Amino acid sequence: MITFSVMDQMQLTYPIFYIMCIIMIASCVFQVKFLNQATKLYNTTMVVPVNHVFFTTSAIIAGIIFYQEFLGAAFVTVFIYFFGCFLSFLGVFLVTRSREKEHLPQSYIDFGNIPGKQMLDKIQPDSNGLSYGTLPDGSVSTKSQSGEKKED
């Protein structure tokens, strides 16, 4: 759109130009917010490669859908394109695989106070413990598909 505007086909008069600018700015703000939250939990050597792979994958899918990049393309061209993407992802994997795993200081996500709900000490209990999957009072109760309550 900017190229067309420079070539005397002014795009600033079309509302889609402003809609796309707003969407682009919103997605940039969301991505920065997401990356800031991720770097608080994990090291940047884990966040940046994951961001690279997801951003590249979403850009490929958007290009295929929006621009119809492979419409009429030969099989060899499509194969080479995806093979290049695979090599890029493989390079990211090889660079980051020897990094030691970082463990979170907390084993759960704290959502804060939820009005009307009883707060427990952990939202995600230790999966190795005996209490995993039980109710707070210790009873194991399930509902059948018909809606009646069963006690085990």
UniProtKB/TrEMBL annotation:
Residues 121-152 are annotated as: Disordered. It is found in: Membrane. Signal peptide: none annotated. Belongs to the NIPA family. This is NIPA like domain containing 2. The keyword Membrane applies. InterPro entries: Mg_trans_NIPA. It comes from Canis lupus dingo. It is a multi-pass membrane protein. Keywords: Membrane, Transmembrane, Transmembrane helix.
